[in-house]
Specification:
The protein is an alpha+beta fold. It folds into two domains: 10-157, no CATH class; 164-373, no CATH class. It has helices at 16-42, 48-71, 98-109, 111-116, 121-135, 140-157, 216-226, 234-244, 272-280, 327-330, 343-352, and strands at residues 10-13, 86-89, 164-173, 179-189, 194-204, 248-262, 289-307, 311-319, 334-342, 361-365, 371-373. The chain is globular and about 85 Å long.
Length: 374
């Protein structure tokens, strides 16, 4: 991974109430994303297995935001020690800066040691009550200590979305000569400060099942993580994988870029969505829109190439988008852009009909939480 992109402008959420509104906003958004995945499954845009994988990563994003909300719970208050505030990317993604996840990974590695040196939750709560009753003051420092304890406890529970989420393998079908697996992994793209989720269906013609192969599986994991860069086309990643592993055949690859998140209250992105949110003048909690991109690359046919003196190996020929000659440019069979937003911003978007949005799939969240596709 590389350092934070120089084009991203960071801002610190130093106001207590703004910080809490920001985390509450993402708590709602991640809940809506799970409903969007269910809608996509009902429309056959996602398989049941793909939905399960995606919702796992979305839940991981939610847990990461929950941990960060504990870490910065008392931002702006006098806690008796210097303590920073959440650094977020206000111009590119609306998500936290990549550096926040790197610090979290370091904190997670030392979470047990920190917790062992802290009073337990019940002790801290009891001391807070005693201070309120005896001194009639707000126990800010004790509240801060408790928030940090909850932060470290959240990381010990695990299942968070980290800067790197190593590949996992799930069996799909086949038992003997040809076994089909779904590989999935994810990264937090440091160039754009966004979560990126990868799925790859492969056929395995090796002797041992991939997940139990002590030689191939570590090599596959290392190869995929090294290629998990948002700037690389799916075609480049899939071809590189196909050439590197003669007995693993990538049949289908999918990549989801989650974000950017737009909010008139928190971000300064340019473009039509900024104007839409400004004109919508939506109440707190409904002033947002989340975009994401779904890229798909599929194998069209198989050819055989010579390998060694007498052998041959299978190589995939991938189908590229035939429309407008965009396939070579995107490196994908198809690409779909979508956006999820509350009703009021959607009404303004539908009235303004800005250029470029006619082909964008809209998922609209009703006040009751129901998600409808337009």
């Amino acid at each position: 991974m590389t350092a934070d992109a120089p084009t991203s402008e960071r801002a610190a959420l130093t106001d207590l109430f703004a910080s809490r509104r920001y985390f509450a906003k993402f708590e709602r958004i991640t809940a809506h994303l799970n409903r969007v995945a269910a809608v996509m499954q009902a429309e056959s845009s996602l398989s049941k297995q793909e939905v399960e994988v995606l919702t796992t990563y979305v839940q991981g994003i939610a847990y990461t935001f929950k941990a960060l909300s504990m870490k910065y719970l008392l931002v702006g208050r006098d806690t008796g020690q210097f303590f920073g505030s959440l650094a977020m990317d206000v111009t590119e993604s609306g998500f936290p800066m990549f550096s926040e996840l790197m610090v979290m990974a370091n904190d997670a590695a030392q979470a047990r040691r920190h917790l062992d040196g802290m009073p337990d939750t019940e002790t801290l709560k009891r001391e807070m009550v005693e201070q309120i009753i005896s001194e009639r003051t707000i126990p800010t420092r004790l509240q801060f200590a408790l928030s940090q304890r909850l932060y470290y406890e959240e990381m010990l529970r695990g299942h968070l979305f980290w800067a790197q989420n190593d590949p996992q393998v799930q069996w799909v079908s086949g038992l003997d000569e040809r076994r089909r697996y779904l590989l999935h992994w994810a990264v937090y793209d440091s160039q754009v400060n966004l979560p990126t989720i990868y799925l790859m269906e492969v056929e395995d013609t090796g002797r041992a099942p991939l997940g139990k192969d002590e030689r191939r599986w570590p090599e596959v994991q290392a190869h995929l993580m090294a290629q998990s860069l948002g700037g690389l086309k799916l075609l480049t990643i899939a071809k590189g994988f196909d050439q590197s592993f003669d007995d693993l055949h990538p049949k289908r690859m999918r990549r989801f870029h989650v974000g950017p998140m737009y909010s008139h209250a928190f971000t300064r992105q340019s473009g039509p969505l900024r104007e839409v949110l400004a004109q919508a003048d939506a109440p707190v909690g409904q002033d947002w829109a989340l975009a994401w991109t779904d890229e798909v690359l599929e194998s069209e046919r198989v050819i055989e190439e010579r390998a060694g003196w007498f052998g041959t190996v299978e190589r995939e020929v991938f189908a590229l988008d035939p429309f407008s000659g965009q396939g070579a440019e995107t490196g994908a069979t198809r690409m779909e852009r979508s956006i999820i937003l509350p009703e009021r911003p959607y009404q303004v978007l539908a009235e303004k009909t800005p250029p470029g949005f006619s082909s964008v799939t809209k998922y609209v969240v009703s006040p009751g939480g129901r998600v409808l596709r337009y």
